[in-house]
Design brief:
The protein is an alpha/beta fold. 30% of the residues lie in helices and 21% in strands. The protein contains 5 helices and 7 strands, in the order αββαβαβαβαββ.
């Protein structure tokens, strides 16, 4: 007597949602302005502006840029704004913060613009493991987006999911 193996996961109505599928393509760059400061601490406007004019901004074409200052120096807002005016023709996105903040900003925009109407009343598993740097905040943002729409939310894989929400 042979018993057929039935893949109940494949036959279920579960839908897997993988945030990694929405990972924006493009190189991420951390731009630390400490080297443009006197002794890494003091921003001298004339010198700073000269360095801005001398810099090759085209190297940031199609890149995502996070502006930061690793020395803890107090940087006036206009300095970040000035840098952004030079990044703007080349970079895809410029933010103030670290690379984790950059990923969070990118995913925030993606999730806000995501159409989830086709997921209405579905049972969803949000895939957990990813090979790309999906920020933890993206998981919270997608919960806020999906919870009003779906029938249930789980986290993990179909074979070992953690229930999160059920209508």
């Amino acid at each position: 007597m042979s018993t057929d193996i039935i893949n109940r996961v494949a036959n279920s109505k579960l839908v897997t949602f993988d945030l990694e599928d929405y990972y924006p393509k493009g190189e991420r760059v951390l731009f630390d302005i400490k080297d443009w400061l006197m002794e890494g601490l003091i921003l001298r406007e004339t010198v700073f502006r000269e360095m801005v004019l001398a810099h090759d901004w085209s190297q940031y074409k199609d890149k995502f840029v996070a502006l930061s200052c690793s020395t803890g120096a107090i940087i006036p807002a206009w300095a970040y704004m000035l840098l952004t005016t030079h990044f703007h023709p080349f970079a895809k996105k410029v933010i103030i913060g670290d690379l984790e903040t950059l990923e969070t900003v990118l995913y925030t925009e993606i999730i806000q613009n995501l159409d989830v109407t086709d997921l209405k009343d579905k049972m969803l598993i949000i895939k957990g493991c990813s090979h790309k740097p999906v920020p933890k905040n993206a998981y919270l943002l997608i919960i806020e987006k999906l919870q009003p729409v779906v029938k249930s939310l789980m986290y993990g894989e179909a074979c070992s999911s953690v229930p999160l929400f059920k209508k």
